[in-house]
Hints:
The complex is a heterodimer.
Chain A: H1 3-6, H2 12-21, H3 26-44, H4 49-65, H5 76-95, H6 103-115, H7 120-139, H8 142-153, H9 158-165, H10 169-190
Helix pairs in contact in A: 2-3, 3-4, 3-5, 4-5, 5-9, 6-7, 8-10, 9-10
Chain B: H1 3-14, H2 22-56, H3 61-64, H4 69-76, H5 79-97, H6 107-127, H7 130-141, H8 143-148, H9 152-155, E1 157-158, E2 163-172, E3 176-181, E4 186-190, E5 195-196, E6 207-216, E7 219-227, H10 246-254
Parallel strand pairs in B: 4-7, 5-7
Antiparallel strand pairs in B: 1-2, 2-3, 2-6, 3-4, 6-7
Amino acid sequence: MQSNYIHEDKTDEDLVKLSLIDSNNFVLLMNRYENKFLRYIRRISNSNHEDAEDILQDSFIKMYQNLNAFDPKLKFSSWAYRITHNQVISEYRKKKSRPLFYFSEIVDEMLTSLKEGNSLEDKIDADLQNKKILKIINELDKKYREVMHLKFIENKTYEEISDILQKPIGTVGTLINRAKKKFKKEYERDK
Amino acid sequence: MSEISKKIIEKIKDEQIKPNERWKLLMRDYSVWALGGFSILVGGFAVGVSIYLLTDHDWVIYKATERNFWTTALMLIPYFWLIILIIFGIISFYNVRHTKRGYKYQGYLIIMISIIFSLLLGGILFATGLGEKIDEALYTNVKPYRQLIKHRSDMWQTPTKGRIAGKIIEIREDKNIVIVAFGGNEWLIDITDAKRHPAVRIKIDQIIMILGEPIQNDYFIATEILPWMGNNLQNKSFLFKNGKPPVIERIFKQRAY
Protein backbone atom coordinates (compact mmCIF):
# COMPACT_ATOMS: atom_id res chain seq x y z
CA MET A 1 0.00 0.00 0.00
CA GLN A 2 2.33 2.70 -1.18
CA SER A 3 -0.51 5.21 -1.18
CA ASN A 4 -1.05 4.90 2.59
CA TYR A 5 1.63 7.37 3.45
CA ILE A 6 0.59 9.86 0.75
CA HIS A 7 -3.04 9.85 1.88
CA GLU A 8 -2.46 10.09 5.61
CA ASP A 9 -3.31 13.80 5.68
CA LYS A 10 -6.49 13.35 3.67
CA THR A 11 -9.85 13.87 5.28
CA ASP A 12 -12.38 11.04 5.50
CA GLU A 13 -14.41 12.75 2.82
CA ASP A 14 -11.39 12.86 0.49
CA LEU A 15 -10.80 9.18 1.15
CA VAL A 16 -14.40 8.39 0.22
CA LYS A 17 -13.79 10.02 -3.17
CA LEU A 18 -10.50 8.15 -3.58
CA SER A 19 -12.13 4.85 -2.58
CA LEU A 20 -14.64 5.32 -5.36
CA ILE A 21 -11.74 5.53 -7.80
CA ASP A 22 -9.74 2.65 -6.33
CA SER A 23 -11.07 0.17 -3.77
CA ASN A 24 -7.56 -0.14 -2.27
CA ASN A 25 -8.00 3.33 -0.81
CA PHE A 26 -10.89 2.05 1.26
CA VAL A 27 -8.29 0.31 3.44
CA LEU A 28 -7.25 3.73 4.72
CA LEU A 29 -10.77 4.45 5.92
CA MET A 30 -11.06 1.02 7.49
CA ASN A 31 -7.76 1.49 9.29
CA ARG A 32 -9.02 4.73 10.78
CA TYR A 33 -12.22 3.22 12.17
CA GLU A 34 -11.62 -0.49 12.60
CA ASN A 35 -10.71 -0.50 16.29
CA LYS A 36 -13.26 2.15 17.20
CA PHE A 37 -16.11 0.30 15.51
CA LEU A 38 -15.03 -3.07 16.81
CA ARG A 39 -15.18 -1.68 20.34
CA TYR A 40 -18.51 -0.05 19.61
CA ILE A 41 -20.00 -3.27 18.24
CA ARG A 42 -18.79 -5.27 21.23
CA ARG A 43 -20.12 -2.66 23.61
CA ILE A 44 -23.60 -2.57 22.19
CA SER A 45 -24.01 -6.20 21.21
CA ASN A 46 -23.61 -9.44 23.08
CA SER A 47 -21.32 -10.80 20.39
CA ASN A 48 -18.02 -12.47 21.02
CA HIS A 49 -14.92 -11.15 19.28
CA GLU A 50 -15.39 -13.30 16.16
CA ASP A 51 -19.05 -12.34 15.76
CA ALA A 52 -18.17 -8.69 16.29
CA GLU A 53 -15.58 -8.98 13.53
CA ASP A 54 -18.19 -10.48 11.23
CA ILE A 55 -20.54 -7.59 11.97
CA LEU A 56 -17.72 -5.14 11.37
CA GLN A 57 -16.87 -6.82 8.07
CA ASP A 58 -20.52 -6.63 6.93
CA SER A 59 -20.67 -3.00 8.06
CA PHE A 60 -17.57 -2.05 6.06
CA ILE A 61 -18.88 -3.89 2.99
CA LYS A 62 -22.17 -1.99 3.30
CA MET A 63 -20.26 1.27 3.64
CA TYR A 64 -18.27 0.45 0.53
CA GLN A 65 -21.39 -0.48 -1.45
CA ASN A 66 -23.06 2.76 -0.39
CA LEU A 67 -20.14 5.14 -0.80
CA ASN A 68 -22.06 7.01 -3.50
CA ALA A 69 -24.88 7.59 -1.03
CA PHE A 70 -22.57 9.31 1.45
CA ASP A 71 -23.64 12.90 1.91
CA PRO A 72 -20.49 15.04 2.33
CA LYS A 73 -22.52 17.49 4.42
CA LEU A 74 -22.52 14.87 7.17
CA LYS A 75 -19.47 13.72 9.08
CA PHE A 76 -18.19 10.47 7.62
CA SER A 77 -17.88 9.04 11.13
CA SER A 78 -21.59 9.71 11.84
CA TRP A 79 -22.59 8.05 8.58
CA ALA A 80 -20.30 5.10 9.26
CA TYR A 81 -21.54 4.79 12.86
CA ARG A 82 -25.12 4.75 11.54
CA ILE A 83 -24.34 1.85 9.19
CA THR A 84 -22.53 -0.04 11.93
CA HIS A 85 -25.34 0.63 14.40
CA ASN A 86 -27.95 -0.57 11.88
CA GLN A 87 -25.87 -3.67 11.16
CA VAL A 88 -25.82 -4.52 14.88
CA ILE A 89 -29.61 -4.05 15.04
CA SER A 90 -30.03 -6.18 11.94
CA GLU A 91 -27.89 -8.98 13.44
CA TYR A 92 -29.84 -8.66 16.66
CA ARG A 93 -33.08 -9.13 14.74
CA LYS A 94 -31.66 -12.11 12.87
CA LYS A 95 -30.52 -13.84 16.03
CA LYS A 96 -33.33 -12.47 18.20
CA SER A 97 -30.75 -11.76 20.86
CA ARG A 98 -30.94 -8.57 22.85
CA PRO A 99 -28.06 -6.14 22.33
CA LEU A 100 -26.23 -5.73 25.60
CA PHE A 101 -23.23 -3.83 26.80
CA TYR A 102 -20.46 -6.30 26.75
CA PHE A 103 -18.66 -6.50 30.00
CA SER A 104 -15.51 -8.40 29.10
CA GLU A 105 -14.33 -5.23 27.36
CA ILE A 106 -14.77 -3.34 30.59
CA VAL A 107 -13.01 -6.10 32.51
CA ASP A 108 -10.10 -5.84 30.05
CA GLU A 109 -9.96 -2.09 30.61
CA MET A 110 -10.09 -2.67 34.36
CA LEU A 111 -7.10 -5.02 34.21
CA THR A 112 -5.14 -2.56 32.10
CA SER A 113 -5.79 0.27 34.51
CA LEU A 114 -4.80 -1.92 37.44
CA LYS A 115 -1.44 -2.43 35.79
CA GLU A 116 -0.93 1.32 35.52
CA GLY A 117 -0.03 1.56 39.21
CA ASN A 118 -2.47 4.10 40.64
CA SER A 119 -3.89 3.25 44.02
CA LEU A 120 -5.24 -0.26 43.64
CA GLU A 121 -8.22 0.38 45.88
CA ASP A 122 -9.13 3.57 44.01
CA LYS A 123 -8.93 1.74 40.72
CA ILE A 124 -11.08 -1.13 41.94
CA ASP A 125 -13.62 1.31 43.35
CA ALA A 126 -13.67 3.30 40.14
CA ASP A 127 -14.02 0.20 37.99
CA LEU A 128 -16.72 -1.29 40.16
CA GLN A 129 -18.45 2.04 39.86
CA ASN A 130 -18.05 1.85 36.06
CA LYS A 131 -19.43 -1.65 36.06
CA LYS A 132 -22.41 -0.53 38.10
CA ILE A 133 -22.99 2.43 35.76
CA LEU A 134 -22.88 0.16 32.72
CA LYS A 135 -25.19 -2.34 34.38
CA ILE A 136 -27.74 0.41 34.98
CA ILE A 137 -27.39 1.72 31.42
CA ASN A 138 -27.78 -1.82 30.14
CA GLU A 139 -31.05 -2.19 31.97
CA LEU A 140 -32.57 0.94 30.46
CA ASP A 141 -34.99 0.74 27.52
CA LYS A 142 -33.31 0.36 24.12
CA LYS A 143 -34.05 3.96 23.06
CA TYR A 144 -32.41 5.35 26.22
CA ARG A 145 -29.55 2.84 26.14
CA GLU A 146 -28.60 3.89 22.61
CA VAL A 147 -28.40 7.60 23.36
CA MET A 148 -26.66 7.14 26.71
CA HIS A 149 -24.09 4.95 25.06
CA LEU A 150 -23.41 7.35 22.20
CA LYS A 151 -23.39 10.41 24.44
CA PHE A 152 -21.43 9.22 27.44
CA ILE A 153 -19.36 6.33 26.17
CA GLU A 154 -18.68 7.29 22.55
CA ASN A 155 -18.68 11.03 23.46
CA LYS A 156 -20.77 12.03 20.47
CA THR A 157 -22.41 15.43 20.13
CA TYR A 158 -26.20 15.82 19.89
CA GLU A 159 -25.90 16.47 16.17
CA GLU A 160 -23.79 13.38 15.61
CA ILE A 161 -26.22 11.26 17.63
CA SER A 162 -29.04 12.73 15.56
CA ASP A 163 -27.24 11.68 12.36
CA ILE A 164 -26.35 8.24 13.68
CA LEU A 165 -29.79 7.33 15.02
CA GLN A 166 -31.61 9.36 12.36
CA LYS A 167 -33.70 11.21 14.88
CA PRO A 168 -34.31 14.98 15.17
CA ILE A 169 -31.87 16.79 17.48
CA GLY A 170 -34.77 17.83 19.72
CA THR A 171 -35.78 14.21 20.15
CA VAL A 172 -32.19 13.24 20.94
CA GLY A 173 -32.09 15.95 23.61
CA THR A 174 -35.36 14.77 25.12
CA LEU A 175 -34.22 11.15 25.10
CA ILE A 176 -30.92 12.03 26.78
CA ASN A 177 -32.70 14.05 29.47
CA ARG A 178 -35.18 11.29 30.17
CA ALA A 179 -32.42 8.68 30.09
CA LYS A 180 -30.38 10.70 32.60
CA LYS A 181 -33.38 11.00 34.92
CA LYS A 182 -34.09 7.28 34.72
CA PHE A 183 -30.41 6.53 35.18
CA LYS A 184 -30.21 8.78 38.25
CA LYS A 185 -33.28 7.16 39.77
CA GLU A 186 -31.85 3.67 39.30
CA TYR A 187 -28.43 4.76 40.53
CA GLU A 188 -29.90 6.25 43.72
CA ARG A 189 -31.91 3.09 44.29
CA ASP A 190 -28.80 0.89 43.91
CA LYS A 191 -26.78 2.92 46.40
CA MET B 1 -2.89 -3.50 6.83
CA SER B 2 -4.81 -5.30 9.59
CA GLU B 3 -6.13 -8.81 9.13
CA ILE B 4 -9.71 -7.67 8.98
CA SER B 5 -9.02 -4.91 6.42
CA LYS B 6 -7.15 -7.43 4.33
CA LYS B 7 -10.05 -9.88 4.51
CA ILE B 8 -12.54 -7.17 3.51
CA ILE B 9 -10.47 -5.94 0.55
CA GLU B 10 -10.02 -9.52 -0.62
CA LYS B 11 -13.75 -10.11 -0.35
CA ILE B 12 -14.46 -6.90 -2.30
CA LYS B 13 -12.09 -8.03 -5.05
CA ASP B 14 -13.03 -11.73 -5.10
CA GLU B 15 -16.74 -11.09 -5.15
CA GLN B 16 -16.30 -8.07 -7.43
CA ILE B 17 -18.30 -5.91 -5.05
CA LYS B 18 -18.81 -2.44 -6.48
CA PRO B 19 -20.26 0.71 -4.96
CA ASN B 20 -23.92 1.09 -5.94
CA GLU B 21 -24.18 3.34 -8.94
CA ARG B 22 -24.88 6.97 -8.24
CA TRP B 23 -27.80 7.21 -10.66
CA LYS B 24 -29.58 4.33 -8.93
CA LEU B 25 -29.23 6.04 -5.56
CA LEU B 26 -30.39 9.32 -7.05
CA MET B 27 -33.36 7.54 -8.63
CA ARG B 28 -34.27 6.14 -5.22
CA ASP B 29 -34.02 9.61 -3.65
CA TYR B 30 -36.07 11.18 -6.42
CA SER B 31 -38.73 8.45 -6.16
CA VAL B 32 -39.07 9.12 -2.44
CA TRP B 33 -39.46 12.85 -3.12
CA ALA B 34 -41.79 12.22 -6.07
CA LEU B 35 -44.05 9.93 -4.04
CA GLY B 36 -44.04 12.44 -1.19
CA GLY B 37 -44.93 15.26 -3.61
CA PHE B 38 -47.60 13.14 -5.28
CA SER B 39 -49.16 12.40 -1.89
CA ILE B 40 -49.28 16.10 -1.05
CA LEU B 41 -50.88 16.69 -4.46
CA VAL B 42 -53.56 14.07 -3.79
CA GLY B 43 -54.02 15.62 -0.33
CA GLY B 44 -54.54 18.95 -2.12
CA PHE B 45 -57.14 17.34 -4.40
CA ALA B 46 -58.89 15.91 -1.34
CA VAL B 47 -58.96 19.33 0.32
CA GLY B 48 -60.07 21.09 -2.88
CA VAL B 49 -62.94 18.70 -3.51
CA SER B 50 -63.90 18.68 0.18
CA ILE B 51 -64.12 22.48 0.28
CA TYR B 52 -66.23 22.39 -2.86
CA LEU B 53 -68.56 19.72 -1.45
CA LEU B 54 -68.87 21.44 1.92
CA THR B 55 -69.59 24.85 0.44
CA ASP B 56 -71.91 23.37 -2.14
CA HIS B 57 -74.11 21.81 0.53
CA ASP B 58 -77.04 23.77 1.85
CA TRP B 59 -76.49 24.03 5.53
CA VAL B 60 -80.09 25.14 6.09
CA ILE B 61 -81.27 21.58 5.66
CA TYR B 62 -80.88 20.99 9.35
CA LYS B 63 -83.85 23.31 9.73
CA ALA B 64 -85.95 20.81 7.82
CA THR B 65 -84.91 17.91 9.96
CA GLU B 66 -84.99 17.18 13.63
CA ARG B 67 -81.23 17.17 13.66
CA ASN B 68 -79.22 20.04 15.05
CA PHE B 69 -76.48 21.86 13.15
CA TRP B 70 -73.64 19.62 14.36
CA THR B 71 -75.48 16.38 13.53
CA THR B 72 -76.07 17.81 10.08
CA ALA B 73 -72.42 18.79 9.82
CA LEU B 74 -71.38 15.24 10.70
CA MET B 75 -73.73 13.97 8.01
CA LEU B 76 -72.31 16.29 5.35
CA ILE B 77 -68.59 15.71 5.98
CA PRO B 78 -67.06 14.12 2.86
CA TYR B 79 -65.64 11.11 4.70
CA PHE B 80 -64.26 9.54 1.53
CA TRP B 81 -62.01 12.55 0.90
CA LEU B 82 -61.15 12.82 4.56
CA ILE B 83 -59.89 9.22 4.52
CA ILE B 84 -57.96 9.89 1.28
CA LEU B 85 -56.41 12.95 2.94
CA ILE B 86 -55.36 10.94 6.00
CA ILE B 87 -53.95 8.03 3.94
CA PHE B 88 -51.94 10.27 1.62
CA GLY B 89 -50.92 12.45 4.56
CA ILE B 90 -49.36 9.38 6.17
CA ILE B 91 -47.66 8.41 2.87
CA SER B 92 -46.23 11.92 2.44
CA PHE B 93 -45.06 11.95 6.07
CA TYR B 94 -43.36 8.57 5.61
CA ASN B 95 -41.67 9.69 2.40
CA VAL B 96 -40.44 13.03 3.68
CA ARG B 97 -39.07 11.19 6.73
CA HIS B 98 -37.19 8.83 4.40
CA THR B 99 -35.47 11.51 2.35
CA LYS B 100 -31.77 12.03 3.05
CA ARG B 101 -32.36 14.71 5.68
CA GLY B 102 -35.96 13.92 6.58
CA TYR B 103 -35.01 12.51 9.97
CA LYS B 104 -33.77 15.93 11.08
CA TYR B 105 -37.29 17.34 11.24
CA GLN B 106 -39.75 16.76 14.06
CA GLY B 107 -42.76 14.67 13.07
CA TYR B 108 -45.27 17.38 13.98
CA LEU B 109 -43.40 19.88 11.77
CA ILE B 110 -43.58 17.56 8.74
CA ILE B 111 -47.29 16.95 9.41
CA MET B 112 -47.97 20.69 9.78
CA ILE B 113 -46.09 21.60 6.59
CA SER B 114 -47.82 18.79 4.69
CA ILE B 115 -51.23 20.03 5.95
CA ILE B 116 -50.39 23.65 5.04
CA PHE B 117 -49.32 22.58 1.51
CA SER B 118 -52.46 20.49 1.07
CA LEU B 119 -54.65 23.34 2.33
CA LEU B 120 -52.95 25.88 0.06
CA LEU B 121 -53.16 23.60 -2.93
CA GLY B 122 -56.73 22.61 -2.05
CA GLY B 123 -57.69 26.28 -1.69
CA ILE B 124 -56.22 27.05 -5.12
CA LEU B 125 -57.96 24.03 -6.69
CA PHE B 126 -61.26 25.10 -5.15
CA ALA B 127 -60.91 28.75 -6.15
CA THR B 128 -60.04 27.86 -9.73
CA GLY B 129 -62.98 25.46 -9.96
CA LEU B 130 -60.76 22.37 -10.35
CA GLY B 131 -62.09 20.89 -7.12
CA GLU B 132 -65.53 20.87 -8.66
CA LYS B 133 -64.21 19.49 -11.97
CA ILE B 134 -62.47 16.59 -10.19
CA ASP B 135 -65.63 15.83 -8.25
CA GLU B 136 -67.75 16.05 -11.37
CA ALA B 137 -65.41 13.79 -13.36
CA LEU B 138 -65.46 11.18 -10.61
CA TYR B 139 -69.19 11.50 -10.07
CA THR B 140 -69.88 11.01 -13.77
CA ASN B 141 -67.39 8.23 -14.47
CA VAL B 142 -66.84 6.27 -11.26
CA LYS B 143 -69.93 4.45 -10.02
CA PRO B 144 -68.67 3.58 -6.50
CA TYR B 145 -67.81 7.26 -5.99
CA ARG B 146 -71.50 8.16 -6.44
CA GLN B 147 -72.38 5.80 -3.61
CA LEU B 148 -69.62 7.05 -1.35
CA ILE B 149 -70.17 10.77 -1.68
CA LYS B 150 -73.30 12.53 -0.51
CA HIS B 151 -73.85 15.11 -3.20
CA ARG B 152 -75.86 18.20 -2.81
CA SER B 153 -78.48 16.85 -5.22
CA ASP B 154 -78.67 13.63 -3.15
CA MET B 155 -79.59 15.66 -0.09
CA TRP B 156 -82.53 17.12 -2.00
CA GLN B 157 -83.98 13.85 -3.19
CA THR B 158 -85.46 13.01 0.16
CA PRO B 159 -89.07 14.26 0.17
CA THR B 160 -89.92 11.98 3.11
CA LYS B 161 -87.36 13.95 5.12
CA GLY B 162 -88.95 17.22 4.02
CA ARG B 163 -86.44 18.12 1.27
CA ILE B 164 -86.99 18.22 -2.43
CA ALA B 165 -85.47 20.13 -5.33
CA GLY B 166 -86.05 20.32 -9.02
CA LYS B 167 -86.83 22.35 -12.08
CA ILE B 168 -90.10 24.28 -12.37
CA ILE B 169 -92.02 23.01 -15.41
CA GLU B 170 -95.47 24.48 -14.71
CA ILE B 171 -96.92 27.38 -12.67
CA ARG B 172 -100.56 27.31 -11.61
CA GLU B 173 -101.84 30.72 -10.49
CA ASP B 174 -98.95 31.40 -8.18
CA LYS B 175 -100.33 28.89 -5.65
CA ASN B 176 -99.13 25.63 -7.07
CA ILE B 177 -96.17 24.71 -9.17
CA VAL B 178 -95.08 21.49 -10.80
CA ILE B 179 -91.46 20.52 -10.62
CA VAL B 180 -89.47 17.66 -12.03
CA ALA B 181 -87.27 16.41 -9.24
CA PHE B 182 -83.72 15.02 -9.65
CA GLY B 183 -85.10 11.52 -9.43
CA GLY B 184 -87.25 12.22 -12.51
CA ASN B 185 -90.64 12.28 -10.73
CA GLU B 186 -93.01 15.15 -11.12
CA TRP B 187 -94.29 16.81 -7.96
CA LEU B 188 -97.16 19.19 -7.43
CA ILE B 189 -96.02 21.75 -4.86
CA ASP B 190 -98.35 23.92 -2.85
CA ILE B 191 -96.47 27.17 -2.33
CA THR B 192 -99.34 29.27 -0.92
CA ASP B 193 -97.88 29.74 2.56
CA ALA B 194 -94.26 29.14 1.73
CA LYS B 195 -91.63 31.58 2.85
CA ARG B 196 -89.64 32.61 -0.21
CA HIS B 197 -86.00 33.50 -0.23
CA PRO B 198 -85.53 36.93 -1.90
CA ALA B 199 -83.45 35.35 -4.67
CA VAL B 200 -86.20 32.91 -5.62
CA ARG B 201 -87.94 33.57 -8.92
CA ILE B 202 -90.94 31.41 -9.65
CA LYS B 203 -90.30 31.01 -13.35
CA ILE B 204 -90.28 28.09 -15.74
CA ASP B 205 -86.91 26.28 -15.88
CA GLN B 206 -85.79 27.73 -12.56
CA ILE B 207 -84.19 25.22 -10.22
CA ILE B 208 -85.40 25.56 -6.66
CA MET B 209 -85.07 23.79 -3.34
CA ILE B 210 -88.11 23.25 -1.20
CA LEU B 211 -88.47 22.49 2.49
CA GLY B 212 -91.82 21.21 3.63
CA GLU B 213 -93.95 18.14 4.03
CA PRO B 214 -94.99 15.43 1.60
CA ILE B 215 -98.72 14.77 1.60
CA GLN B 216 -98.90 12.15 -1.11
CA ASN B 217 -96.45 10.49 -3.48
CA ASP B 218 -96.62 13.44 -5.83
CA TYR B 219 -97.93 16.24 -3.66
CA PHE B 220 -95.81 18.36 -1.36
CA ILE B 221 -96.67 21.37 0.80
CA ALA B 222 -93.81 23.87 0.83
CA THR B 223 -92.90 25.83 3.94
CA GLU B 224 -89.77 27.43 2.53
CA ILE B 225 -88.43 27.92 -1.00
CA LEU B 226 -84.76 28.52 -1.63
CA PRO B 227 -82.83 29.19 -4.81
CA TRP B 228 -80.64 26.30 -5.98
CA MET B 229 -77.51 28.37 -5.36
CA GLY B 230 -78.17 27.90 -1.67
CA ASN B 231 -77.94 30.37 1.14
CA ASN B 232 -74.28 29.83 1.71
CA LEU B 233 -73.40 30.41 -1.90
CA GLN B 234 -75.51 33.49 -2.46
CA ASN B 235 -72.51 35.74 -2.29
CA LYS B 236 -70.18 33.47 -4.18
CA SER B 237 -71.80 33.55 -7.59
CA PHE B 238 -68.43 34.54 -9.05
CA LEU B 239 -67.47 30.92 -8.66
CA PHE B 240 -70.05 29.83 -11.16
CA LYS B 241 -69.99 30.57 -14.82
CA ASN B 242 -73.12 32.47 -15.87
CA GLY B 243 -74.16 32.59 -12.23
CA LYS B 244 -75.37 29.00 -12.28
CA PRO B 245 -73.84 25.90 -10.77
CA PRO B 246 -72.69 23.91 -13.78
CA VAL B 247 -72.92 20.50 -12.13
CA ILE B 248 -76.67 20.58 -11.74
CA GLU B 249 -77.15 21.78 -15.29
CA ARG B 250 -75.19 18.80 -16.50
CA ILE B 251 -77.11 16.41 -14.25
CA PHE B 252 -80.29 17.60 -15.87
CA LYS B 253 -78.81 17.28 -19.35
CA GLN B 254 -77.53 13.78 -18.62
CA ARG B 255 -80.92 12.64 -17.39
CA ALA B 256 -82.55 14.33 -20.39
CA TYR B 257 -85.37 15.99 -18.51
